Amino acid sequence: MSRALIIGAGGVAGVVVHKCCQNSEVFEEICIASRTKSKCDALKAALDGGKTKITTAKVDANNVEELVALINDYKPELVINVALPYQDLTIMDACLATKTHYLDTANYEPEDTAKFEYSWQWAYRERFEKAGITAILGCGFDPGVTGVFSAYAMKHYFDEIHEIDILDCNGGDHGYPFATNFNPEINIREVSAKGSYWENGKWIETEPMEIKREYNFPEVGKKDMYLLHHEELESLGLNIKGIKRIRFFMTFGQSYLTHLKCLENVGMTSIEPIEFEGKKIVPLQFLKAVLPDPASLGPRTVGKTNIGCIYKGIKDGKEVHYYVYNVCDHQECYKEVGSQAISYTTGVPAMIGASMLLTGKWKKPGVYNVEEFDPDPFMEALNKWGLPWKESFTPDLVD
Ligand code: NDP
């Protein structure tokens, strides 16, 4: 009997729940638990009646005791954390206390500092190992599939990988002048931060949006993309031996960038609390409250995403170039699970990672990033569960 506890009931959680129900052979029972229980109940109402038995619960995932009580009561084998990055450590603590496996899609970030890195979660390695439980970190698309792609490239096509460019293109249009495709607070914190890339063993920092390139994305077309710091750079820099450079680029339209600049200039993206009518408010949290809920973008978004990685390296003494990517259509996702492609491309890999763990293919005590597991069963599952990938050995390169 496989039983999973899903924490969070937002855009990504909605896709995870749909996909677990499609994969009922593995997910016989799921519990959806979040801060706002009505959102969990709405998901249950939409999906009840299939083979997967769904229950719901209310939980404040910032509170370890509440989490431990819920886990002891429900007794899942695994917790799938699709709440926010702020809750990663409390949920890992609860998993340790109850000896329950753990999976998430984004690395820990303290709420009062816009800084994300793996050090906090990697510090749990020994404790998870001793407890005999597995933690899989960053199992969305990027991070997530980008790490699986890297392990697959290394296993099948390269003796050494020297350079990786991760390209995240959203060619979708939701018709709003400004909206974010996933949690606005997390998204704006990420894109307004300084950029950086990994080169010859050290980080090179850039100003936000300083490095711009144009790329002609298969099935999407030409887009401007900008270099950002991104969490998988940190783990791939360590786990892909011999790597000399890794960069991450994301596409942004001019309207998004102009609005973001304006919001920044007037102080609306700040995470420093300010006094407003006798109350302390965080400008970015207020901005989140007035922006469209990403979960509401599904019916309006048309177009495709293309996310993938370009590798340069050596096989049998010869230089090899390899591009592997997935193209995902926003409207197709909406028809299937009622969400746009950003939530879909995150939720599907989270379900697949969870099923890898529950079926024992990716189970080893400790704390791991996805590229540390065998990529082959995951790559096969991507084709089966809605994120088929394509490859090219003659891609356009990014200069
Ligand atoms: P949403 O904001 O749509 O959903 C977050 C959910 O978490 C909400 O249901 C929210 O509850 C719940 N939540 C927040 N705080 C708590 C708490 N203290 N206790 C319990 N529940 C809580 O976010 P998304 O679904 O867009 O994103 C989910 C995660 O996926 C994020 O960590 C994000 O960074 C990550 N992500 C990863 C990607 C990848 O490719 N790796 C890409 C996109 C996102 P409430 O409804 O009450 O607000």
How would you characterize this protein structure?
The protein is α/β, with parallel strands linked by helices and 399 residues long. It has 14 helices and 18 strands. Strands 7, 8, 9, 10, 11, 12, 15, 16 and 18 form a nine-stranded mixed sheet that branches. A seven-stranded parallel sheet has the order 3-2-1-4-5-6-17, sandwiched between helices. Strand 1, helix 1 (11-22) and strand 2 form a beta-alpha-beta unit. The protein binds NADPH dihydro-nicotinamide-adenine-dinucleotide phosphate. Residues 8-13, 34-36, 39, 59-62, 82-85, 87, 105-106, 140-144, 182-183, 186, 294-295, 342, 346 line the site of NADPH dihydro-nicotinamide-adenine-dinucleotide phosphate (NDP). NADPH dihydro-nicotinamide-adenine-dinucleotide phosphate (NDP) binds next to helix 1 and helix 13.
Give a quick account of the main beta sheet: strands, pairing sense, barrel closure. Answer: 9 strands, mixed
What's the count of strands?
Answer: 18
Number of helices: 14
Shape annotation? globular
Give the helix level as a range of percent: 25-40%
Instruction: Please give the radius of gyration in angstroms.
Output: 20 Å
What amount of the residues lies in strands? 25-35%
Structural class: alpha/beta
Bound molecules: NADPH dihydro-nicotinamide-adenine-dinucleotide phosphate
What is the terminal separation in angstroms? 51 Å
| Assembly status | single chain
The average pLDDT value, as a whole number, equals 95
Model regions low in confidence, pLDDT < 50 over at least 5 residues: none
